[in-house]
Amino acid sequence: METQTAKILDGKALSAKIQQSLSAQIQELQPKFGRPPGLAVLMVGDNPASAAYVRGKERACEKVGIASFGKHFPTQTSLAELEDTIAALNNDPQVDGILVQLPLPEHLDSVKLLNQIAPEKDVDGLHPVNMGRLVRSEEGLRSCTPAGVMRLLEEYQIPVQGKQAVVLGRSILVGKPLALMLLEANATVTVAHSRSHEIKSITQSADILIAAVGRNGLVTGEMLKPGAIVVDVGINRVVDASGKDRLIGDVHFESASKVAEYITPVPGGIGPMTVAMLLQNTVKSYLTRF
Ligand SMILES: NC(=O)c1ccc[n+]([C@@H]2O[C@H](COP(=O)([O-])OP(=O)(O)OC[C@H]3O[C@@H](n4cnc5c(N)ncnc54)[C@H](OP(=O)(O)O)[C@@H]3O)[C@@H](O)[C@H]2O)c1
């Protein structure tokens, strides 16, 4: 029987390392600045997955010394009330970062709401100003999940320049900004999506393959170039034989890890990197205020 040959890109360990260094930085700066960095995570409704993500973000904030100004609103909250809350947070000198946990209940226009966040406090990097800065390769707050992918590749000294990078998925949250970041790092980038033909021949051309689709086990080993770098952004909840909830990525780990050189696990890959980048963006925003 073939065994796993791929090395693990350990997002959990790198996230812990980044958090340790942010914590030390905050301890040093807080006495000079007179306050800790502050992050407001806004959540609307009772989506259990969102609630778990928000709890994770707040716990991470507490661990590194970032103050939380989060608010949890009932499902029926109006757009006007949320806009007022964001306006107040935009003007609050204790708050460096504002994040609206997605998805929002259907009656709320998430684009309209995200556009209310002051770009300099937009730690999720989703405001058109920050997206525009990314397109132009200007300094700005970069979206957390794609930034986490790039940071993980950098940590393992995986060369990106000149490589064929394939991104599966073209969402504004992951696929599009990631394609831009890879391009900025001088990769040759292909973006595939639900209307792409011959996905297998596209994935087989990838030196670096990033899956951000949301389809359990979509990418199998036979779809990969031998020695590829495989980054699995997907998070899919499945119920296993014992009735327990389990998280599975877009990549079929067992077959892919026999072909790839490096691979991210799910969980323990890009999920923790996303949290680390959120904390890092909050500290970055804090530093610009003094
Ligand atoms: N690890 C993290 O921290 C993190 C953060 C964010 C998201 N995620 C996970 O990443 C995944 C993607 O998230 P998202 O927000 O980008 O999702 P999304 O908005 O639903 O976008 C999915 C993308 O995948 C494409 N797609 C769908 N089926 C496909 C197929 N069979 N072949 C190729 N492409 C296909 C879609 O194409 P069209 O554009 O043509 O519809 C779309 O561009 C989800 O599992 C999500 O839970 C993880």
Automatic annotation (TrEMBL):
CDD domains: NAD_bind_m-THF_DH_Cyclohyd (cd01080). One of its GO terms (cellular component) is cytosol. Residues 143-287 form the Tetrahydrofolate dehydrogenase/cyclohydrolase NAD(P)-binding domain. The keyword Transmembrane does not apply. Signal peptide: none annotated. One of its GO terms (biological process) is methionine biosynthetic process. NADP(+) binds at residues 169-171, 235. This is Bifunctional protein FolD. It comes from Dulcicalothrix desertica PCC 7102. The lineage of its organism: Bacteria, Bacillati, Cyanobacteriota, Cyanophyceae, Nostocales.
